[in-house]
Amino acid sequence: MVTLTFYGGVKEIGGNKILLEDRGTKIFLDFGMSFGKRAKFFEEFLTPRTAAGIKDFLTMGLIPDIPGIYREDLLKHIGRKPEQPDVQGVLLSHAHADHANYISFLHQDIPIYCGETAKRILDAVQESSQRGIENEVIDFKKRPLFRKDYKKPPIKRKFNLFRTGDKIKIDSLEIEPIHVDHSVPGAYGFIIYTSSGPIVYTGDLRMHGLRAEDTMDFVNKAKEVKPIVMITEGTRIDVPKTDESEPKVYADSKKEILKNQKLTIVDFNFKDVDRFKTFYKIAKECGKKMVISFKHACYLDRYCEDKKLDVPNCTGENIYLLKPKRLTGTYDNSDYTDKYIKQRIDYPNVITAEDIVKKPKEYMVVLNFWYFNMLVDLNPVNGLYIHSLSEPFDEEMEISYKRMMNWLNYFKLNFMQSHCSGHINGTDMKELINIINPKIICPIHTEHPGMFRDLSMKTKMIKEGKMYRV
Ligand SMILES: [Zn+2]
Ligand SMILES: [Zn+2]
Q1: Model pTM score
Q2: CB–CB of 446/235 below 8 Å?
Q3: CA of 354 to the centre of ligand 1 (A)
Q4: Do the strands 2-6 and 467-469 form a parallel or antiparallel pair, or are they unpaired?
Q5: Ligand 2 mean position to 204 CA, how many Å?
Q6: Ligand 1 centre from 94 Cα, in Å?
Q7: Residue 99 C-alpha to ligand 1 middle, in angstroms?
Q8: What is the pLDDT of residue 425?
Q9: Per-residue model confidence (pLDDT) at position 409
Q10: Mean pLDDT of the chain
Q11: 2-239+423-469 is classed in which CATH architecture?
């Protein structure tokens, strides 16, 4: 008998944690952070306490309280008995936080199966972030973490990496990962061959990106196996098809940049390699130098190891690294204590805001909202700001968005929204499901599961924590 239990991603976008059990073999499909559940109780300055280990997360329902999955040190830390791992693996569809981050809490002996590129991204995240309890996907230090233990090496998790074409065996289960197009490279959907029949899991995907054929490969394979169940994302099931596309982002943005002839500031998610390539190309074609942060540098240095991605490293042609002001505020090299900055601080392509101000129209600065205080030094008057991210979709984002607009107005920056989503629209989604033609659909990663009812196949309205027999 095969069972499915959904511990996250139910009536919410992301936080997928799906337990599949077949003849004693248990695997999780993703183990992500639920932004919605977290935001219900926490915000920027009210966060789960790292010092309390797993306690705040369990108590406030951010992770399910189930046996045989969590780290021994975390269980002991809250006065519980350590448990032997009772799950044989996690299939990680891609490296977005809403699918990956809460792997941090899992027992070190539960292996993680993911694409090679997804692992590179997880490595870059780890390199460029401060260690915290929600950010220990690659490795972790035992808690409670005493000062004397700071220098001890971390405990590494087991990663089994795959590429398209590989087949994975986890005990009695055979799994076929197939690449899909999403706003991050190394994204996969899975076909899981169970004793009841094949189960298909989409992860996150789309049809309007640069690699739509990857998604089609997945769709065709999924159709061939005649799945009994399809667990599908539905982020934008309520959104009809538009003309959004990466080439449109390129064309629209380039046109505005050429028109402006001043400093260009752009914000996009650096995990999105296609978007990086779009703006890298525009910068070159418009005679601008692309300026990135040291955090971004960590990503480029990982991506460039993957020849298929075809991106430069952080000292590559036309790439410059923006030196932030730290400690003394004088750009003295001894101000930089973060390892990822320190090891790159002597690179010949490191520049300062003051360098940019001398010839602003020669630069395109990739600047995230959280670093907008740098605008004070960049003084980008009458320049262009391109927001290449999704528009705000909740209250907190609205507040930040308003604040962002205040900054833009203050510096008389021209605003442009230029983006295409990482998620498939409703029109394409329905078409895709009709092609695959599963017996049963389980919509997750959506606030509108009911909208899948328009389709002719049986649709399960999933309840969180309920076990479904397949
Ligand atoms: Zn997602
Ligand atoms: Zn995603």
Answers
A1: 0.96
A2: yes
A3: 39
A4: antiparallel
A5: 5
A6: 8
A7: 6
A8: 98
A9: 98
A10: 96
A11: 4-Layer Sandwich (3.60)
